Description:
Number of helices: 6
Radius of gyration: 19 Å
Helix content: 25-40%
CATH topology of the domain at 54-147: Chemotaxis protein chec
Low-confidence stretches: 1-29
CATH class of the domain at 54-147: Alpha Beta
Mean pLDDT: 83
CATH architecture of the domain at 54-147: 3-Layer(aba) Sandwich
Strand order of the largest sheet: 3-9-10-6-5-7
Oligomer: single chain
Amino acid sequence: MWDTVGYSGEMWDNNPPSQGAPLTGMSEKRTMMLNGEYDHTLDDKGRVSLPAKHRAEIGDTLILLPGLDGQINVYPLMAWQKAAENVAAQNQALKEARDLTRILYAATECQVDRQGRILIPPSLRARAHLDTAVVILGVNDHLEIWSQERWQELLKRLDSEGSQMAEKLAGLGLRM
Length: 176
């Protein structure tokens, strides 16, 4: 069955309350909504602290994989497993499906330590051009780790494309 997200971000099944009514009968399911921009530092060993706001929500076992825009994507184990199931169901006779499978399964599992840090493998640090200063973004169901330099470059590009972005958002019914 389809679930509906309530005003608080919690979900209820099939019987949403009327407008303005208190949310009652919530199911145990919760949607994960990671957001925010956080400046962090990568230590000498390649560890970075995760935003305290999201530590309990994302859990202790995380999946790291290269992002498509030069960042590192950090998925909670359950979110990655869901994506892996969807990819595994694709027709592997198609080149795009095989490529997506390779990207998704080129993942590294890591554990969050007691200080809320993860160790980023050297190969991923090199691929993402991570130095000391990093930016961590909450992006719906995962985190992204960017080098400070690449993140600033992306922001400059997005600023220069503001009008086109506004038009695309308007097409989705969003006003900025």
